[in-house]
Known about the structure:
Radius of gyration: 19 Å
Helix content: 25-40%
Number of domains: 2
Number of helices: 8
CATH architecture of the largest domain: 3-Layer(bba) Sandwich
Strand order of the largest sheet: 6-3-2-10-19
Amino acid sequence: xxxxxxxxxxxxxxxxxxxxxxxxxxxxxxxxxxxxxxxxxxxxxxxxxxxxxxxxxxxxxxxxxxxxxxxxxxxxxxxxxxxxxxxxxxxxxxxxxxxxxxxxxxxxxxxxxxxxxxxxxxxxxxxxxxxxxxxxxxxxxxxxxxxxxxxxxxxxxxxxxxxxxxxxxxxxxxxxxxxxxxxxxxxxxxxxxxxxxxxxxxxxxxxxxxxxxxxxxxxxxxxxxxxxxxxxxxxxxxxxxxxxxxxxxxxxxxxxxxxxxxxxxxxxxxxxxxxxxxxxxxxxxxxxxxxxxxxxxxxxxxxxx
Length: 305
């Protein structure tokens, strides 16, 4: 059920970086809320064997214990993805897929990065020529055009809703909607054309995207395809706030040694800060981010404005 929630520090992500940030921020007596779904963490399905002091375990066991530790420290959990974030005075306001509004003084971005692709013909060939992985980054290129979003989770649905402000016609292709009912209802109340129970076989065109071939043989004429196969990603949320990305790749959030971004009150940790993709790195960065975010949230308002 949608609600308004106040906290000192909001941690976006339930992987090793996010859980460690929550543990340390809560230990510093900050009121911590963690957003996300542990089962969606890239570490959840892994076997852990090269992490110091742990002689073999599963990612699932490690993350579940991390959640219990964070809860023992006082952190709260909301098993919903963030779909938007905006600056307020003196902090930030986050909207979740279920419609809840979270007001906080500091944010830790620890959602990992999306490395999921469709792996269909035409996807690589038309990247940058109609194929995109970031609605917030590229929506304005498709003004008054027909576009499709491919995906089943919050990133896909929120992307489709955003594209309604730009495109002439928006399609959403998904096997099954996997979002909170509030978000699903919002989608169904809009002009987005939902192709549920369908998937993409190929992306077609000559020099640019011209159509999608669906698995039932349908050809859907489109000029743009947004591939959004997970939760709303760090890069997209960071773009809404003006958080600087790594200038060489534009794939990772730039931070200093205190895990601070260029936006005061916004910290980042884990895979979204770049390789190596290791739990040890994520935990270390999460520790620093949690401590720094808690300290920032405890400052008087005049020092953070």
